[in-house]
Design brief:
InterPro entries: Transpos_assoc. With 144 residues, the chain is mainly alpha-helical. It contains 5 helices and 2 strands. The site of zinc ion has 6 residues, from helix 2.
């Protein structure tokens, strides 16, 4: 899958540099991979600025980019197959059904919980135990 757009640092490079030529090639390849390559596209060169001169073939676009330079404010190639909204790509919503199952397992029945915590104390005695522990805490707090 070549869905990740290539680096765009070359767009700031001098049009005579090899880096720029390679960048143009990566742009053309990206467009071709995403959109097919047989169609006509907006030219992002400094003279056409995508919309100004209508659509052109990739061959003409490559000549324009090398002769005129690319409009280096065109950082998201939305006319050439790059999605505008990148933040939506890697978002995954976890299955709500599996989350519910997990939650049920995470909360055991109340009786089991009390038995685990207090040993085999009868539930009727529990209030007295709680009151005792609260009074103890109260005493400790006053001693402070
Ligand atoms: Zn052009």
């Amino acid at each position: 899958m070549s869905s990740t757009p290539p680096s765009k640092e070359w767009m700031d490079a001098d049009t005579l540099l090899a880096e720029y030529f390679q960048g143009v090639a990566s742009f053309l390849k990206f467009t071709k991979d995403k959109l097919g390559g047989d169609d006509w596209y907006y030219c992002p060169c400094t003279k056409c600025l995508n919309y100004h001169k209508g659509k052109k073939t990739l061959k003409v676009i490559s000549e324009h980019l090398i002769c005129n330079g690319i409009d280096n404010s065109y950082r998201t190639w939305f006319n050439h197959g790059e999605p505008l909204c990148k933040t939506t790509i890697n978002v995954r919503v976890s299955s709500s059904s599996s989350a519910n199952v997990h939650n049920e397992n995470a909360f055991p029945k109340m009786e089991d919980l009390f038995n685990d915590t207090f040993g085999r104390i009868h539930l009727d005695d529990l209030d007295e135990c709680l009151i005792e522990s609260i009074q103890q805490n109260d005493t400790l707090a006053r001693e402070d």
